[in-house]
Amino acid sequence: MKIPVMVISGFLGSGKTTLLLRLLEETRRRGLQPGILMNELGKQDVDGLILDEHSDTAIEKLLDGCVCCSKKEELADCLKKLLGQKPDIVFIELTGVANPEEIADALTEPGLLGLVKLNQIITLLDAEHMLDYNSIFSSDKQLVRTLRRQMEVADLLIVNKTDLVTSRVLVKIEKAIRKHNEKAQIVYAKHSQIDVQSLLSAILPHAHSPLPVRSFRMVQAAPLIPDKEPRPNKDEALSYSRVQSITLPWKPAGDISPVRIEQFLHKWEAHILRAKGYVSFSKEQPIQLLQHAGKRTTWAPSSFTGDPYVVFIGMDLDQEQLAAEWSALLGLKPN
Predict the structure, then answer these.
(1) Domain CobW C-terminal spans what residues (predicted)?
(2) Which CATH number is correct for 239-329, 3.30.43.10, 3.30.1220.10, 1.10.3720.10, 3.40.50.300?
(3) Could you tell me where in the chain the CATH 3.30.1220.10 domains are found?
(4) Would strands 309-315 and 243-249 be described as parallel, antiparallel, or unpaired?
């Protein structure tokens, strides 16, 4: 029996992990065993740890991998390892700059035929920023093309964060969506809250086996190497070369507040698209989960127990300058 695969796509900070958490809650309610393959740009895991904190499903993590690459046979090997756990459904959460079409194509490779079937491609859109993407990334045609493909190949489009925009903006968003995808269902949501029951209604547990909590592996693939496609200028840089990530430790030499962190992110807003990680402001307070997307920063208590760090993802990041200013912010002496 083929294992259904649900692909979750969407640009950085659109709410993919929050949706995945809601799907995992529903799989637990239905007695289903999920397999999770998660794609992170950074070398340090954040989203996988969020799943650990909020889901009863045990997850093993292998980090710094990319499932969106030209070597589709490597993706097939990764999925085969995951399928060895005998899941009832596999969720693939893509990084924000991945083209879900490549994953859909990879599922039809000979090594996976007969093992999996594409159930659905879901793309989340950040209502607050979607209409600005064309202008923000106007100098990066490859990235604009990728973001459009995320819309074009979706079976379901979730316009998320609708509480942050007006009804007039939502009308413009729907027109923009229909320009690229005339058939997909459109759902409007706040905090990725949608009817997940209908998404999983046709998925049934394996009748031949009990359903204890088992350990599932977040599979590591090769570093991202985009498919080579003809481009007008052969020297034109691929989008992926401009989207970079850097992980910086959190070791403040003195007192520091969330306000100062937000001021730092605001200063770098022309380049930082996404920041996430774990920070601690005092021994008396729990470690905080930092989430930053667009121009908004949120904080939430976390049970994280490791060494705090923050992952920065951005366009054309001057990593040395960012690291130097981060150290200065934390009151650290330059090396």
Answers:
(1) 245-330
(2) 3.30.1220.10
(3) 239-329
(4) antiparallel
Tokens found for residue 102: 């490549």
Closest CA to 11 of 120, 156, 175, 146: 146
**pLDDT tens digits for range 103-137:** 888 888 777 878 899 999 999 999 999 998 877 78
For 129-152, the pLDDT digits (tens) are: 999 887 778 767 888 888 999 999
Query: Among all chains, which residue has been given the structure tokens 């949706």?
Result: 19
Degrees, nearest 5: CA angle 30-32-33: 155
**Cα–Cα distance list, 70 to 11, 104, 222 (Å):** 20, 13, 10
Backbone dihedral angles phi then psi of residue 309, each to the nearest 5 degrees: -160, 165
Cβ distance 178 to 4 under 8 Å?
A: no
